[in-house]
User: What shape does this take?
Amino acid sequence: MKLKNTLIKILVPILSVICSFLVGAIMITFIGGNPADAYKFLFRGAFGSTANIGETIVKSVPLIFTGLAATFAYKCGVFNLGAEGQFTMGAVTSIWISTVVTGITGIPLLILSLTGGIIAGGIWGAIPGILKITRGLNEIIVSIMLNYVAVLFMGYLYSSPLREGSVPQTAAVAVKLGRIMNGTRVHAGIIIALIIAVGIYYFLFFTAGGFKLRAVGLNQTAARFNGYSVKKFILLSFIISGAIAGLGGSVELHGTQFRLMSGFGAGYGFDGVAIALIGQLNPIGTVLVAYLFAVLRAGATTMQVGSGMPTSVVDIIQALIIVFAVAGSAFTNLPKTRQFLSNMLSKQNRKEKEEWKQC
Amino acid sequence: MEAVLNVTFFQELLLSTIRMATPILIVALAELYSERAGQVNIGLDGIMAFGALVGFLTSYITGSPYLGILAGAVGGLLINMVYAFCTITLGAEQIVYGMAINIFAPALASFIYKIYFGISSTLAQATLMKVMPIPFLSKIPVLGPVLFNHTIIVYLTYLLVPFTYLFFTKTKPGLNYRAVGEYPKAAESLGINVVRQKYIASMICGALAGIGGAYLTTCYISTYSDGVVSGRGFIALSAVIFGRWMPGGVLLAALLFGFTDALQLRFQVMSSATPYQLLAMIPYLSTLFVLAFLGIKKAGPKANGKPYFREER
Assistant: This one.
């Protein structure tokens, strides 16, 4: 039974991806394009050269962070739709530290800056958590309102007090994350992201705290009767989720963008939620799906140039994956489907038993 | 300051409040109809985006903003059928699926826009709906132009509030409708078709939210751009909570949020020296503060957000 569940959890996302590409192909044909051609350019854009492969990895880094942030919160049964705001506030704090702090440079400054990002993200994530446990407010609305506030605040910073030059953007950060692959822009951020992913995986599935956190996520009443402090776990999961997203913003700033400007971090929060859900709320699955999304994005421009299909085809494919994946998970959880699947399994068992008897 | 804070200022502020509250009100009512049947739909923002696109395109092609509104309703309804099928028939978690709609619908809208107008296009403009002053009433000094000089959509939206109130409290279908959101098992035992009622609720919700989106592009601004909705769906969602799931309360909440929106726009016009980003935060921050200080822990339909399986005991 356990094996079967795992199999379904792996099969559903894979089938969703295949279905989405098929529907995407139909749409491309419908608007007068050649799907095979478009997909060829898409994958060439993602894997065509060392630089392209590197670019795909670079694009996956922020998505891994926001995906993990969503996964972590959801494991405790709460929705953190505010990853975009936490991501932004992390980057904003890093820029601020980089502007204000003088006297230290190099690695210590980098560590200080990343820590600042973690703390800022954690604080921004704590707000919906605190309002949820003290006032019973819906965390979805609070975290989304905070997204808009954070993005507007960032806009204020890069167009007025921290603006550099005629274009609305900030100065570049003083210290950058090191490159780790020759001939590409891949930076040490990917290593940080993977360490965080493995760390979360270990925490959730191999520690007592992780077990309790998942218990709260599955059934709050049962968790309360077991003496777990539900409110503490909810708040904690919000803070950690926010901290992960904040670190993501900081890493993206130090590794890829170097300065804040319009559109920094836009959409990463919702994409993170999509990635977490498609990845079946498993940290490792999250990393894989984040990489898939990065492949789609890295290839989108090449596809637009090569085959004339607009990049929004890729957005549609991404959106379809989430639509199919969630519907697929729900379908496999339906009482009728469960019955059908277990019937099939028991029939097979019976058959095997009969065969065994005949021998 | 005296020159600014005169009668015209307040008149314009109120006029703008009513205009800005309209899309929030209609979408909040959409959510009210949905949640009264136990269907929490957080995909409102996405449905609005799709409604805005469909409404804009129809209005652009046909030249009639009225057809645009109609098309917005149909578009919203169709998109919400995806949500309805997956949450009602497949029993998917409503919040999760609402989120999926929030990602899917704007992507589809953006895709259709780019296909129709090409990758690099100049900003297309559609005609805006004309205001329809109500004879005599609009001639009342001060209040007349504020209350009775709007598009027909505004009047209909505000009329929907008393209608919804009467429907849910005084009519049998309305009470049956609410029973589905409160206790579907009991409703089913009384011969109410719960699944059908939930589908109907989702259809109403989709159509109204689609109209709310189309309002933005046919009555408010004459262009479509990604992000035109800018969180209004979520503000509407909080208007339902703040309005205690009752039409009157929802109206007050929508007016309050419309007022903050109108106020920040006035401020932007008045003091161009203040960075507009700080002013644009006002509606979002006030939503937060209002919810934090006046929100309530538990209210609303009892079976809200729970999937319903007829076979389950």
